[in-house]
């Protein structure tokens, strides 16, 4: 389950990076519409639902290793950022 959560976090981080770049091209690519740029970078119909389901399952099945959930999600986010930065995705 944590692998799927990490993948969804990776997709959200990738979309955030794309959005940061697309903001500079709102007029030329998206006719000034922020919502068009947002929907181009985040296909949330699928990924939002998957993140919610995987996150809920992860919280429900979290083993008691003494680490807070934020630490697990933070480490997963950092790993996904590293994968994106190195081009390993």
UniProtKB/TrEMBL annotation:
Pfam families on file: STING_TM
Superkingdom of source: Eukaryota
Residue ranges of every copy of the STING transmembrane domain listed in the record: 2-88
GO molecular function, one term: cyclic-di-GMP binding
GO term, biological process aspect, one: defense response to virus
GO CC terms in record: autophagosome; endoplasmic reticulum membrane
Protein's name in the database: STING protein
Name of the encoding gene: Tmem173_1
